[in-house]
Design brief:
Keywords: Membrane, Transmembrane, Transmembrane helix. InterPro entries: TPR-like_helical_dom_sf. The chain contains nine helices and no strands. It is an all-alpha fold and 181 residues long. It starts with a helix and ends with a helix.
Length: 181
């Protein structure tokens, strides 16, 4: 079905290009009709792209980038859908989990952000080659603090630090020290 739809799209594009290309010489299509044909093609292409199946990390990123421009909720749905793909490798799932945690953080859903950050931390602790950057660590700890889980944030930070999974961060330590009044 997907290949057939793609072939149809290519054939339609070819016909449109021929019509537009030769319309000046044959003078049978007014410019308004040419514009309408182009708009229809663009709309058909967008419809085709939206129906295209998501099979790989590349597809997920394509859809995620497009949806995140207009709706964080749709971007989150795309990332969650992507995490369900069995074809992804562990490092690709980790990447999507990190993106998901950051999206929840951006929409200020700190409870779900904490859950997503926890999955990321668990995966980071299972691997040898991954180290958490300070920018990500700040958002991780911030999510826990904003979700009233300061002690848990402290434990996670200390564990990551002890295992060499992150560098010591003055910003994070200041966040953990500062108690709300």
């Amino acid at each position: 079905m997907d290949k057939k739809a793609f072939r149809s799209m290519i054939l339609l594009l070819f016909i449109i290009v021929l019509l537009i290309g030769f319309s000046g010489y044959l003078n049978f299509l007014p410019s308004t009709i040419k514009s309408i044909i182009l708009v229809l093609f663009v709309l058909l292409f967008i419809f085709y792209e939206s129906r295209r199946p998501v099979k790989s990390l590349k597809d997920i990123n394509r859809v995620y980038q497009r949806r995140s421009l207009f709706s964080r909720k749709k971007a989150i749905e795309t990332l969650e859908e992507g995490l369900q793909l069995e074809s992804l490798k562990d490092n690709e799932k980790l990447f999507l989990s990190m993106q998901l945690a950051l999206e929840y953080y951006k929409v200020k859903d700190y409870e779900k952000a904490c859950e997503a950050f926890k999955r990321v931390v668990d995966e980071v602790l299972r691997t040898d080659y991954i180290k958490i950057e300070e920018k990500f660590l700040i958002k991780l700890v911030g999510s826990y603090i904003l979700n009233n889980k300061r002690e848990e944030a402290q434990k996670i930070y200390n564990r990551l630090l002890a295992l060499g999974k992150c560098d010591k961060s003055k910003v994070v330590e200041d966040m953990l020290k500062n108690r709300p009044s």
